[in-house]
Design goal:
Blueprint (H helix, E strand, L loop, with lengths): L8 E3 L16 E3 L2 E3 L3 E3 L8 H9 L14 H10 L5 E4 L3 H12 L6 E5 L6 H13 L4 E7 L2 H10 L3 E4 L9 H5 L7 H11 L4 E4 L6 H8 L4 E4 L14 E3 L2 E7 L4 H4 L9 E5 L4 H18 L13 E3 L9
Parallel strand pairs: 4-10, 5-6, 6-7, 7-8, 8-9, 9-10
Antiparallel strand pairs: 1-14, 2-3, 11-12, 12-13
The structure holds NADPH dihydro-nicotinamide-adenine-dinucleotide phosphate and the ligand Nc1nc2c(ncn2[C@@H]2O[C@H](COP(=O)(O)O)[C@@H](O)[C@H]2O)c(=O)[nH]1.
Protein name: GMP reductase
GO molecular function: GMP reductase activity; oxidoreductase activity, acting on the CH-OH group of donors, NAD or NADP as acceptor
Catalytic activity: IMP + NH4(+) + NADP(+) = GMP + NADPH + 2 H(+)
Length: 323
């Protein structure tokens, strides 16, 4: 298997079949709903909060609420449904998480999406949680992860997951590769390709996306959706205060397995960084859509599916990886 990452790949253009990029459709059906673009902000505490989730849902973007305000998740589902919006939450695998599923079922609160979010998702703990959710909340679209291998994808799909999330350690705030020696960091795009070939259901490419063009590349290699953290971290709407330093504005971005998230230095696999302030998230999402429309035009198509068939070349070291 050849190892490559986003910066090593360039997609090869086909003849354009549209007169304007505005004709091009970037919509994606993912689970029970259709979204404007195949992009979801990472379910991390420095990336999403309730006001942003509401804005994203109202504006036809996919979102996944993080799982770190444990007791706010049930009321969150209720509030979203009262507003006529879809609910999409995350869970872990510890005993309290089983109770949450039971409480949601008892209250007849059925979120549209539940993401099982742990670092090493190819595990019986995740398989057991998939079974539990499917038993108690059968209508929910279950996303499970993270995994980095075809075997991981197949096992979670066979257990009942409706989609799997691929990426072990490629994230900008991640230090898993350094701390453990394991992961898909440096070959995340090749891992997406490998996993998507084994998948019979959608996969989410999670981590390592540094430029808008990487979204098109993820779709080329089989992703239905891209989860992005660092590119979304610096916005006005991102949780946390704007920090001024040497006349420049920043926002904080920290890993979900960092000591800042955990409140203690134990099994730490994430770090904290400052990312430049980028204005409003609506502008970034709009630019992502425009760039994706342009990418589809280079693919010679009118919709996302055109990207799946384009040729590619591997050009090692063409540009420096942001990491
Ligand atoms: N995508 C990625 O590469 C990574 C993502 N993360 C993110 O960090 C957050 C915290 O993740 P996580 O620590 O899994 O969540 P939790 O702290 O909720 O741990 C989940 C469960 O899995 C156990 N566990 C965690 N890591 C391992 C492992 N390597 N082998 C065996 N058991 C394990 C934990 O027990 P115990 O702690 O006692 O071992 C716990 O019971 C999540 O949001 C996750 O997505 C973290 C690292 C990598
Ligand atoms: N190894 C770790 N990975 C983490 C941690 N917190 C989050 N993540 C993963 O990173 C992506 C976002 O990646 P980015 O390159 O777009 O910034 C996120 O969705 C998680 O899967 C962590 O502490 N350690």
């Amino acid at each position: 298997m050849q190892a490559f990452d986003y910066e090593d790949i360039q997609l090869v253009p086909n003849k354009c079949i549209v007169k304007s990029r505005s004709e091009i459709d970037t919509k994606i059906k993912f689970g029970p709903m259709i979204f404007k673009i195949p992009v979801v902000p990472a379910n991390m505490q420095t990336i999403i909060d309730e006001p942003l989730a509401i804005w994203l849902a109202k504006n036809d973007y996919f979102y996944i609420m993080h799982r770190f305000n444990e007791d706010e998740r049930l009321p969150f589902v209720k509030k979203m449904h009262q507003r006529g919006l879809f609910a999409s939450i995350s869970v872990g695998v510890k005993p309290k998480e089983y109770e949450l599923i039971n409480e949601l079922a008892a209250a007849h609160l059925v979120p549209e999406y539940i993401t099982i979010d742990i670092a090493h998702g190819h595990a019986d703990t995740v398989i057991d949680m998939i079974h539990h959710i499917k038993k108690r909340l059968p209508g929910v679209f279950v996303i499970a992860g993270n995994v980095g291998t075809p075997e991981g994808v197949r096992e979670l799909e066979n257990a009942g997951a409706d989609a799997t999330k691929v990426g072990i350690g490629p994230g900008k705030a991640c230090i898993t590769k350094l701390k453990t020696g394991f992961g898909t960091g440096g070959w995340q795009l090749a891992a997406v390709r490998l996993c998507s070939k084994a998948a019979s259901k959608p996969i989410i490419a999670d981590g390592g996306i540094r430029y808008n063009g990487d979204i098109a590349k993820s779709v080329r290699f089989g992703a239905s959706m891209c989860m992005i953290g660092s590119l979304f971290a610096g916005h006005e709407e991102s949780p946390g205060e704007v920090i001024s330093k040497n006349g420049k504005k920043y926002k904080t971005y920290y890993g979900s397995a960092s000591q800042y998230q955990k409140g203690q230095y134990k099994n730490v696999e994430g770090k904290k960084l400052l990312v430049p302030y980028r204005g409003h998230i609506a502008d970034t999402l709009h630019e992502m859509q425009e760039d994706l429309q342009s990418a589809i035009s280079y693919a010679g198509g009118r919709e996302l599916a055109a990207l799946r068939k384009v040729d590619y070349v591997i050009v090692k070291n063409s540009i420096f990886n942001g990491d």
